[in-house]
Amino acid sequence: SNITTPRLGRRDGQQKDEPFAWDAREFLRQKCIGQHVLFSVESSHPASGRDFGSVSLSDGTDLSSLMVTAGWARVKTVAAADMTPEIEALAGLERTAQEKGLGLWTKNANAISCAIREIPATDKLDATEFVESLGKQPQNAIVESFLDGGKCRIILVPSHHSLLLLLSGIQAPGIKREADGQEVAQPFAREARFFSESRLLNRDVQVILEGVDKYGNFFGTILHPGGRLSEELAKGGLAKVAEWSIGFATYADEIREAERAAKKQQLRMWKGYQAPANASVAVSGKDFQGKVLEIATGDTLIVLDSATSEPRKVSMSSIRTPRLGNTKRGEKPEPCAYECKELLRSKIIGRRVRVLVEYARPIGQEQREFCSIFDGKSNLAELLVEQGYATVVKHRHDDERSANYDALVVAEQKAIQAGKGLHAKEPPAIRHINDFSIPHTAAKAKSLLPFFQRSGRVKGVCEYVMNGARVKVFIPKESCVVTLALQSLRVESASRPGGAPGSPFGDAALSFTREKVFQHDVEVHVEDCDKNGVFLGDVYFGKGKSLAESLLEEGLAFIAGYCENQVLKACERDARNAKRRVWENYDEAAAAA
Q: What is the mean pLDDT of residues 225-249?
């Protein structure tokens, strides 16, 4: 009561502050915010409903007297009949402040020139450019008000930008104000707002501005010595993870962990929460390292576990890649399917990778493991998303997801902005490949024989291993797949899924060939083509090693029929003399007889 202070201007900058309004407000804020006070109502204004009275700090300091003494308030002029001892005391304090030139009464020219702050016009602010200019560095700010637990208005200092800030990565229950001024609140909305207000309203904080959505809304994180507000709200069950903004959040993993803890304890909005029966199941403690044996699809690999020597089928968490299609079922490949699989194949086939198992989900009859797979420090899922060859799965709120989900979302946004892969205005044309390895294509296959004979060694990729001595090879130069059998070699029969068991050495030959050439870059040298369109020759892998020679050296194959190649004969002879594999029971005397 009994004092007036300069009025602040509009936050949009269209109406300026009265001189020293900001300084007076800041003086009072710093003196009393967070302090216990004693107040008494002395009068009320009927029209506005505003109460007037006295407020004092816990040590008895009267705030009206404090403001007048510091020169940040004027004493109201009253008629002589209305003069009271309290008003007379305030008037005396005001005269002293005037004599000393304090606050509003200063004679300092520099202070007077800075008495009215410059409020930037927010309607002319380029939100995206403004956020980028700050570089995600913490900015000093004052929290002015909370619309709900996760949405507030802040003032950046010293620039005095007034911004509506949404906390990145969370959504608190909303509060809607009706036309009549009444508030309609969702469950726990008022509790969430009180939680935020009681800790941060009118407090000095630091804010990281992290992003802007398509509507120009600012998203960020509020830092405070007591903790990060977004995490504390999620931890207390007063907010949930918001997928549309979690990609902005600097501390996304911590927010998700806070929400998981609230769910587990069934706090507030999670009371009675039970995860859906068909939701993915979190898996931990099953991380492993191993060698990549096969790229099954653009997001699924077969990895040989180094610890158990058992192959494991794993899929990449939280991404979807284009489907390869199925020729036998008449299914065409989706755009970028070939490019996606080829990028993975060329990068990691035969290499050691680190697999972090994150969750499991039923796929058909199997419980598939979904993982983050790393080649060194490179996350393969993120690589595919960055190149536009994969999209990020929009999980249900209850689903487990990649530990690197937020990095995937950011990578996808970059790919979309750059128009890469699937996000291009015109996605790459579907690659057409002629398959000359299937029945009824023998004539077309034979037409390639002159090309092979003229070219010598031709580069290709082994697409399939039929047995230890017969493979299918993709020839990029001709965009075709052909069958190639190692000339003059035979291997014992291998086991077939659901069929009769094969010879142990046939299975060993199949495994050997798969390990050496399956999905690897190879070179083929063709000598001839049989009546069924099967090319006869040799396959070279690694640094030019002959597959035919390798099989013979290991004792996994033998020469059948006439062979002029003296090197192959020498390899077979060495294996036979050493009694390796197929030769372990060989009796030279019996064979000669």
A: 92
Angle at 158 between CA 153 and CA 162, to 5 degrees: 25
Is the Cβ–Cβ distance between 143 and 229 less than 8 Å?
A: no
**In the chain, what is the straight-line distance between the N-terminal and C-terminal CA atoms, in Å?**
125
Please report which confidence band the pLDDT of residue 431 belongs to, taking 50, 70 and 90 as the band edges. confident
- The answer on pLDDT for 406 being more than 90 is no
Q: Kindly state the tokens that stand for 413.
A: 């946004």
What integer pLDDT is reported at residue 281 of this predicted model? 59
Residue spans of alpha helices (H) in 365-518: 380-386, 405-418, 442-446, 449-455, 504-517
Give me the mean pLDDT over the 117-121 stretch: 86
- Long-range contacts: 571-576, Cβ < 8 Å, 24+? none
Helices (H), 364-485: 380-386, 405-418, 442-446, 449-455
User: What span, in angstroms and rounded, lies between the C-alpha atoms of 98 and 104?
Assistant: 8
What is the model's pTM?
0.64
Question: Do 14 and 121 form a contact (C-beta atoms < 8 A)?
Answer: yes
Higher-confidence residue of 30 and 226: namely 30
138, 98 Cβ separation under 8 angstroms: no
d(CA 196, CA 206): 15
Q: Distance (Å, rounded) from C-alpha 74 to C-alpha 68?
A: 6
CB 381, CB 318: distance < 8 Å: yes
CA of residue 575 relative to chain centroid, distance: 53
Which of 116-125, 245-254, 354-363, 395-404 is predicted least confidently? 395-404
Tokens of 44: 């009320």
For residue 322, name the pLDDT band (cuts at 50, 70, 90): very high
Scored b (16 or more CB within 10 A) or e, 355-371 reads bbbbbbbeeeeeebbbb
Per the structure block, which two tokens stand in for 173?
Answer: 């229950």
Cβ distance 201 to 149 under 8 Å? no
Segment holding 592, helix H or strand E: helix 588-592
Q: Taking Cα atoms as reference points, which of 443, 491, 444 lies closest to residue 465?
A: 491
Q: What angle do CA 208, 164, 227 make, to 5 degrees?
A: 40
Give the span between the Cα atoms of 237 and 240, in whole angstroms. 7
Residue with tokens 């009118």: 202
In terms of DSSP bridges, do strands 480-486 and 535-541 run parallel, antiparallel, or are they unpaired?
parallel
> What mean pLDDT is predicted for residues 372-395?
94
Could you give the maximum distance between any two Cα atoms of the chain, in Å?
A: 142
pLDDT in tens, 450-460: 999 999 999 99
Helix (H) or strand (E) holding 552: helix 547-553
DSSP secondary structure letter of residue 98: H
Which amino acid type is present at position 467?
A: N
Helix ranges (H only) for 55-214 are 63-69, 85-100, 109-113, 127-134, 189-200
Q: Are 259 and 241 in contact (CB under 8 A)?
A: yes
The number of angstroms, rounded, from the C-alpha of 466 to the middle of its chain's C-alpha atoms is: 39
Please give the structure tokens belonging to residue 289.
Answer: 């390292």
Give me 336's structure tokens: 């970028």
Beta strands at 489-490 and 3-4: parallel, antiparallel or unpaired? unpaired
Q: Which residues pair with 319 in a beta bridge?
A: 392
- The span from the CA of 172 to the CA of 174, in Å, is 6
CA distance 326 to 429: 17
Q: Are 191 and 268 in contact (CB under 8 A)?
A: yes
